[in-house]
Prior knowledge:
Elements lengths: L3 H15 L16 H9 L8 H8 L1 H10 L7 E5 H6 L1 H11 L4 E5 L9 E3 L2 H11 L5 E6 L4 E8 L5 E9 L7 H5 L4 E3 L6 H17 L5 E9 L4 E8 L9 H8 L4 H21 L1
Antiparallel strand pairs: 1-4, 2-3, 2-4, 5-6, 5-8, 6-7, 8-9
Amino acid sequence: METPVFKLERVIKTVDEMTDFAFPLLHGPFGEDGTIQGLFEMIGKPYAGCGVAASAISMDKIFTKEIWAHKGLPQCEYRYITKYEYEENPAGETARIENGIPYPIFVKPANMGSSVGISKAENRAGLEAAIQGAFRYDKRVVAEQAVCGRELEIGVLGNGAPRVSAVGEILLETVYYDYDSKYRSGAKLAIPADIPNDIKDEIEGLAAEAYRALDGEGFARIDFFYDEGRGKVLLNEINTIPGFTRYSMFPLLWEAKGTGYKELIERIIELGYERYNAANQR
């Protein structure tokens, strides 16, 4: 029977022998959280996308929000809670969230993708259920103010000097962009989004700033809320490995900017080699 150490050695040897350049397209834990990126670093293989630290931080909603808050970037109100703190004082922790965020409130696991474990709470009973549900997926949970606004997305491409794509909009038929909307029933997309030029310019600037704040490299998609009534743009989250089929939002955003699918992939590979060569020269 193989030991875990022997299995790891065999995996590393196989990846090393079969791979010249790695293009990870794995969603969620072990794919976009810095884990597989660390493997590529260990065996000295160039790869596409963000590095270990940027991948791990961007996957963690709490770390991401804390860094963006430190930079003064606009976000909705949020609070976070650990399972230990909640189990020690559930009523007090629930009240702390209520006192800081008005209902309705979205509750999310800190380290999950694809909208898994997300619930919307309208009152205290719903909030308690949402927190307990999110703790099934992570020991750290984030609660966010629900924003009544349009969901806009933009692609970012680059290492030190990021470029941005067109801005697109998700036209929802559900309460929020949940798992079914993403992978089963689908959602309608508007590319480019029908928004004023000053809002487009603001999103482009914020996307580049948010990407640099997390030490983004290669590519990412950054999601925003646009509160049309107040003319306010808020950062939502970053996705360092967005959907990458020909019909996914990320490549379609770049196609609208004049960068086709083949050219986009080639540029991402170039950026991976660029980072790899710079690191080896050090």
